[in-house]
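ARCHIVE CARD
SHELF: 3
SLOT: left
DATA:
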Amino acid sequence: MPSKTPHTNGTDPVENGINSTKDVEMKDDAPAPLKGGKGKKAKEGEEMAVVVPPPKGSKLSATPSKDKDGDTAMDGPVEGDEGDDGAVKVDPVTKAVVDVKSNFPLLERAVTHFDARFSLRALRSISSIRNRLTPDILAQVITETYQSANPAAKSLLKSLDREHAIFGKTSSIEMEIDTDNKPKAGKKEPKEIIPEIDVFLGILTQIYFLESKDYKKGSIFSAYLADRIHSLNRRTLDSLSARVYFYYSLFCEQIAPLAPSPSSPVVSIRPALLTALRTAVLRKDIDTQSTVIVLLLRSYLATSHIAQADLLISHTKFPENASNNQVARYLYYLGRIRAIQLRYTEAHEHLTAATRKAPSSPSAAGFFQTATKLLLVVELLMGDIPERATFRQASLERALQPYLLLVQAVRVGLLGDFEAAIKQHNDTFRRDGTYTLILRLRQNVIKTGIRMMSLSYSRISLRDICIRLKLESEESAEYIVAKAIRDGVIEASLDRERGFMKSKEVGDVYATREPGEAFHDRIRACLVLHDESVKAMRFPMNQHRLELKNAQEAREREREMAKEIQDGDLDEDDLGGEFEGM
């Protein structure tokens, strides 16, 4: 405990253990080496005392001295205990509580400055806290933050089964600060807790239920939290409310019966999501609006309601200022819907943009792999062969191995290898959600085989085509060849009377418009990326007004100086250097 009397100069224990109660008087005629001079000798007749400090890491063997009040000076650290190696041991529960409560000032700053970046910083810190969350830690944070009569605290404790927790407790660190630094005055008024802290603790509670796989209790608590957010209209809650609805939908996806069933909770949550979307649009809540649109599309695709998903896309406008992660998810689901609707060109554009916007962090590798798998299937359905470099990427090589077999079969046009690859990796394709699209590739394999034969032979009979492609009859081969000629897959003519296909001479591909169109697509993608980067730039608020004000004041000073020069009050010598900058 520190002494109540004021310390005089020299009463604090110094590093070498010497203590004195007398004030030390600093004189100007101190020895030259002590004054920092180099090469100067001490005056004659004066003795120069040199104090050698102990080396680092050594502990004093002398007993600690006592001050005037008899209190012993503490040499060791005040907080925490030291082990044999000198490291300070920290209680993991106390550390977790401090980490959770350290986000409260960020939320308060977000409300004070009306800046959502502080809320996003608090949300990003959840990844380092989520593995340490327990009901006792959350209950301790709640009881140390709220008063006993707070209804939000009671509801949080009830959801955690900690209704009998004692309020009013403070941590040991806060108690030391209060007793040492703060005078004992009247009782401090309780600090008002902002709703952002309530919702943040609710999100931590959701994450605890998710980590403990208690999905039923998590969905019930999420419904309560969503109703509370719906009753509030605060723009500083936008990013937090979006995260609440995300976990709400995630809980419903894990509760039986699962997604394809019409009685699944995924279907029952849709009215709540649609209500949240309508409210977010009216309040111009961009974060919640983008998140809920993505969750609704995910829900419709889980139950194969493609028509309803298409209606949602046509009747809503995805916000332009949404976060990059939500834009990537929205483009992926939009590409999947367009692929199912046989609109492969649009699906290819959306999926390509989704893979480009996918986060590069290792934690988001799963999304990049899923989007790339669907993109490869769409490219095959369009009649294109994906580049081999795609399968050589370190993060995709193992996940795309089944799709590499498909691409090889389609590229060569071997129908037997194609069917063998589907049979071998049937479970993988069903799990990825690409099985129904891959079944459509059978016609593409046949078309590719016909294209290869049209390039190899100037004339080939329909019977040979039937044998090579393993078709049932010559009539089916004639139908497939005619359709390929009409679709522009091959440049050939069909002689039905003689029963053969005659290929036309292949011209130079660079004489066509295909290279120019591919180059134009790449330029357009770069321009779109540039425009989005410019839109995402942040600037200080009202900075342009300050610059305009400074420029206007500079112009006024120039006018006054020019007027004084004309009147003869000033000359160039009086202006000095300022006149040269005019």
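SLOT: right
DATA:
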Amino acid sequence: MAAVTAQVSDLLLHNATVHTVDPKDTVAEAIAIAGGRILAVGRLADVEQRCGPSTRRVDLGGRTVVPGFVDAHPHMDSVGLRLTKPAFNNPKSIADIQEVIRKEVARRKPGEWIICNPVASEPEVFGYPAALAEGRWPNRHDLDKVSPDNPVYIEPPSLVAPGHAFANSAAIRLCGIRKDSPVKEGVEIEVDASGEPTGVFRDINFPKWLPVRDGAFRAQGSLFPAMPELTDAETLAAVAAGAKAFNEAGITTIYEGHGIPVGPQRAYMDLWNRKQLTVRTYFVVSYPIPYYRDREKGNELIEQTARYAGGNGFGDDLLKFGGLGFSFDSAAAMGACLMREPYTGAAGKPWLGVQLADDEAFRDIVRRCAAAGLRVQVQCSGGGAIDKVLRTYEEVDREIPIQGKRWTIQHCQFPSAHNMADCLRLGVLPTTTTNFLWMYGSVYRKAFGEELAQQAIPFRSWLDSGVPIAQSTDGNPFQPMFAFWQLIARKDAVSGQALGDPAQRISRQEALRTYTLNGARTAFWDEVTGSIEPGKYADLAVLSQDILAVDEDRIPQTRVLATLLGGRPVHDTGLFSR
């Protein structure tokens, strides 16, 4: 048993299988907690020595306790927005879609916009429109039948190419959309035999030019300029909804290195001020892509951010923000990431992929961040992007050392052994997600070829290289029980087969560490959370079964019975309310 101080616990959890994720991966049976922190963990007979007459004892009935999960790239605000928008949940017919819209019209004011989630999510969306009984997408006439006056817009999936969006006649009319409306390259307005828009739109870009209502949403400059912007109240409600969903899923900490735009930043701070933030949140300030071409605005953002978010970040153990987050290439999920060799992209033509900033401009931006004392986090999916980003890090490091500053790279689906050695030498922390294999494995095969697709997201190689890679979800699916299973199974949903070299499989203990302690390290919180050890916060998830022991296929059926943040239940199915 490990213990600290002579303090008496106010809460004892016992009769449990406790996976501590300590340096020895100790399995314990009891935890003593005082003031929100862990006093002792180990055998019940030993831990009970830290209890007194006032200690509350909770018998967990043999259930499993793990550290609260740490999602190292969650988009919690975007998850919350999805939860607050009308959803179709993979409909079986256009009539199903109409029924959702009909219900929305009934509860909305006349003329109020109805903005919906995509018709279907990945990977199911790849089976549409064939999955609809009608065998086709809904058009404006279908939507007009249930919403003649309220403008309706159904978003495209942001990481699908082409992503299909749909609008009714009221929305088309308000936005002045015609067959000859100017559109960005890669966007198509479908028209009928008379040349009128059908209400079906396609977009192969990422980020989408057709609106996707998230934290970076802007209607102006798109094909739908009349669509209302997100209000502060809507954004706050979305972040709160995301936090609640994460609590219910067993997530206690997030690291959002992709960057959070201004609107959601304010919402996180408002919840923190109201003492309603129930997920430890470390977020990075988003560096807008247009600033790559606007040096003056970029310099201003770097200078402003350095005043309050330099070094390890500013804040406390509940909300912290630090550094700048960049995107260097586009999405592998759409065949748009920057690769080392040509491949077939979403437009059906050979290319290397998208590079959002030229080498010289990016190097200058990163150097200025380092000189200002700002931590740098970069999304780089393809192998070519990873090479260039790490080369930039190395060049900057020769002038301004970055070792120990925990710069990160994110997504990084196609790393090389050389990339891994660079990360180890520079102290760079990578985060990625095996969820991409589940949702986009079929895209990888089609775009990059079978051999390269099998090399994607090599967790085993990262760990064997000595780099503490962290698991994340990119917010879809965000539930840890699925993402933990996918770390082990590594399956492609379309084929149902495992994707990747079997040698890349990792153990369940290793998987748990990548999804807890390694994630906490990206937020500089590995000394206060991420494992169940004395002195750390009692951030815990109580599970219905032991995910380190049950049959692999049963892992996704595991229920989160309670989630504790600093020893306080933020989700409870009854264990702590008895």
